[in-house]
Amino acid sequence: MPCKLLNLCEYETHKLVRIQSVRLGSLKWTFNGVILMFICIMMLWNKEYQEHDYVVSSVTAKVKGVALTSLPDVGDIVWDVVDYSGPSQGKNSFFVVTNVIVTKKQRQGKCPEVPPYGKVCRTDEDCVKGFWDQHSHGVQTGACVKFDVTRKTCEVSAWCPIESKKKPPKPALLASAENFTVLIKNNIRFPNFNFMRRNILPEMTESYLKRCQFNRHTDSSCPIFRLGDIVKEAKENFLEMAVEGGVIGIQIKWDCNLDGFLRNCLPKYSFRRLDEKESNRTLYPGLNFRFARYQTEKGVEERTLFKAFGIRFDVMVFGKAGKFSIIQLIIFIGSTLSYYTLTTVFIDWLIGTSCYSKEARQNYSEKKVESVQDRKQCILCVSFVDENHIRVVKKSHKKSLQQVKPISVHPCKDDTGHLSAMVGVLQKGNNIIDKPPQVLPRPNRPAWCLCGCCLPSTHPQEQLCCRQSIGRCITTSSLFEQLVLSRPLLEAVLLYREPLSDLTEGEQRIAALRNCSYRQYINWRIGAPPRESIPVMPSCSVWRIREEYPSQEGELLSQQAVTPLYLLNHSHC
């Protein structure tokens, strides 16, 4: 189509094929109903009709509880929230000490390094003054001193005595931390909807908060949690985890519906362990840190070193709020309309399978698909007297048309109007031949001719016989004489098409009868040709017609290519 400005004002639409079938119609509406049900379920289940916004939150935690421990060489120590909370663990986290290793009365001085961090030596030459590394407890003095009865190590300047215990005590010294409680305050906001809420709900009173404790089955909204219950919800054992420590995640999920009477916005709590205890069993398991308490004894500064093991609790907040939006609903409906094409795809596939006969499939395909051939490609259709169908083939410049394999096969479509008219003319003329005409075989029969009546040709598209197997030629049929060659019939046909045509004797009349004879043969043997295909007459029929209605320029006609068999208006092939 040439590109013109007026083309912008044109409208194009699709062509539909309607199949009158109760079975296919019922199947279509069944599939469409299933798809509609699926779309509605997904829309309601996932709230696709809503506009969504994600949560912005802040978290604070307050731990409460007191524990009493008895430490060797230290005595009884009371641990309150200041002692067991440890240093700040960062945003949205809190830490609780559950076990300790104590090294008391450390002073600045010189002492042997502890293996395996200290180098085992024999003489002072094995130690380097001023040396240290990331595992050292101090700086080497250059002296090799006695560590125990059998070993010597390099002396270091450090807090002495150096911490020597490696493994935490079992059971954990602060195992009673299992009964500590924590109040988690979570404030959330959905900016797009200007909606704010916190996990301490409006209906909660001060007296309720003093006595409530989270329980998934009896009180799942209480913001006060027992540490032992948190670890248990994470499917862990608190007493085992308290020995070396670990990391527990507290997940708060807000799934809010802000639509009118369906409004609902409550937190849901879940818990899980975040560190991998199994894979890290031999590689720095658990969680620990060190802190010291300093004092002065007789003017000398001393400290008690604590290596604290504990559990860190990370509070993670997730949330999404939804509110009805007509724009989102329209977008969802528009995006799901494509699902209905699945019905068309399935039914088209079903028609193309063995569920339908070959004739029904071909008929549907012809109605649904309109093939447009390239102008450089010529598609021909041929009919053989010993076959009851029409072959569609491509024009070949090398192979004889008689030998070209078909690209498709179609049933013959009779022109009932033409047939009725011919029967009427034949009955009126009363010239039916009882005996078939005698047509003598031609002497120079080519190899591709199977009826014996064809003439040689140098053009492959003209090398076509009326048969696919050896047998009698169609020109010997009595109907060929009556339907194709009968002058009264041809004149009646010409007058039927052009009532005022002049049928006076002369070359013009002979040419008209000859062309009409071509058309009669094609209407008789081929009928309505398949779309975009050009009907071809066999060589024997063409030359028999030319013998009956010759041109005054007979020599020219005898040398002319068999172009009239293409109905004259397809000369571009």
TrEMBL record:
One of its GO terms (molecular function) is extracellularly ATP-gated monoatomic cation channel activity. The keyword Transmembrane helix applies. PROSITE patterns: P2X_RECEPTOR. One of its GO terms (biological process) is calcium ion transmembrane transport. It catalyses: Ca(2+)(in) = Ca(2+)(out). Keywords: Cell membrane, Disulfide bond, Glycoprotein, Ion channel, Ion transport, Ligand-gated ion channel, Membrane, Receptor, Transmembrane, Transmembrane helix, Transport. Gene3D superfamilies: atp-gated p2x4 ion channel (1.10.287.940), atp-gated p2x4 ion channel domain (2.60.490.10). It is found in: Cell membrane; Membrane. Residues 381-555 form the P2X purinoreceptor 7 intracellular domain. It is a multi-pass membrane protein. NCBIfam families: P2X. PANTHER family: P2X PURINOCEPTOR, P2X PURINOCEPTOR 7. Belongs to the P2X receptor family. Receptor for ATP that acts as a ligand-gated ion channel. This is P2X purinoceptor. It comes from Oncorhynchus mykiss (Rainbow trout).
